[in-house]
Design goal:
By secondary structure, this protein is mainly alpha-helical. Strand 3 and strand 4 form a beta hairpin. Helix 10 crosses helix 11.
Length: 286
């Protein structure tokens, strides 16, 4: 989690004197694993092994990653645009799969043309590079030998784990928004997943989760105090957490369902529920 250290004090968990109920029953040791050694065998958080293909097929971001990797493999290499982005025909091809829709495009606010016009597709290319699936040389993408072999042998479990760990530990969740806090959302993301595991069978407002997340990591709200355009710090914190955690993470992996009430996007109520495949992918040992 070194990427977020400037935003987050690692002693804030171990030295926190708040009651343990703020951690939903986890001990400080448990929380240390959830934040700093999330994918350790000793962590309470685990991605299940031997997930069947019928479940993996329902994870849109994984399928989109696999599709891009397959296209690169089919051609041996993929020539990028002069600015290093995916070629426009491929962008349209991926978007037309209908795996992850872009709100701005679907509402006519923006038009699909280049990679950067669609956040999910831009993210897909970024993750393939950050994860080591691909390497870039002379403005061309090729598959690395290790991951080409895993793609060809259909080792989808390893591809999922690498995609998930890269997204949560190497990618800057603030890349697509204007909030100065880099830590809100990715720090303790596994705790957010535990909250869904515990409470997600019932539909709940997004701020139900953001408030519980804030109880566990109270120092994170201080990172919003210096944003000159923020008038309501708590509202901004909740919005930042909700957009990053639900809209741009868990929904991409089909771990939640989102239902909105209200006419305007930013004024509507966002209602969250655990998806039907959540428990087929995620488990907690507590």
């Amino acid at each position: 989690m070194d990427f977020y250290q400037k935003d987050f004090d690692p002693t804030s968990i171990l030295m926190n004197n708040r009651p343990i109920e703020d951690f939903e029953g986890f001990s400080p040791t448990d929380m240390h694993y959830l934040v700093y050694n999330t994918f350790s065998p000793d962590s309470p958080f685990q991605i299940k092994k031997n997930i069947p293909d019928k479940i993996l097929d329902q994870i849109p971001f994984l399928v989109q990653i696999e599709y891009l990797l397959s296209k690169i493999n089919d051609h041996g290499e993929l020539k990028l645009t002069a600015k290093g982005f995916l070629p426009t025909p491929l962008v349209k091809e991926i978007y037309d799969l209908g795996l992850i829709k872009d709100y701005a495009i679907e509402k006519g606010i923006a038009k699909l043309y280049a990679e950067t016009s669609s956040q999910p597709i831009n993210l897909t290319r970024l993750i393939t590079e950050l994860s080591g699936f691909t390497k870039k040389r002379f403005n061309k993408l090729t598959l690395t030998k290790k991951w080409r072999n895993k793609l060809l042998t259909k080792n989808r479990q390893d591809i999922l784990l690498q995609t998930f760990s890269t997204f949560t530990q190497k990618f800057n969740w603030g890349y697509f928004d204007g909030y100065s806090s880099q830590a809100t959302g990715p720090v303790g993301f596994a705790f957010s997943l535990f909250l869904l595991s515990k409470y997600g069978d019932t539909e709940r407002l997004d701020n139900f989760y953001s408030e519980k997340y804030l109880r566990a990591f109270p120092s994170l709200i201080d990172l919003f105090k210096d944003d000159p355009w923020v008038s309501d710090i708590r509202k901004s914190f909740n919005s930042c957490y909700s957009i990053r955690t639900f809209d741009r993470f868990l929904d991409y992996f089909n771990l939640i369902t989102i239902r909105s009430e209200g006419r305007q996007y930013y004024d509507s109520k966002k209602i969250i529920k655990k998806s039907s495949i959540f428990d087929e992918i995620i488990r907690f040992d507590k």
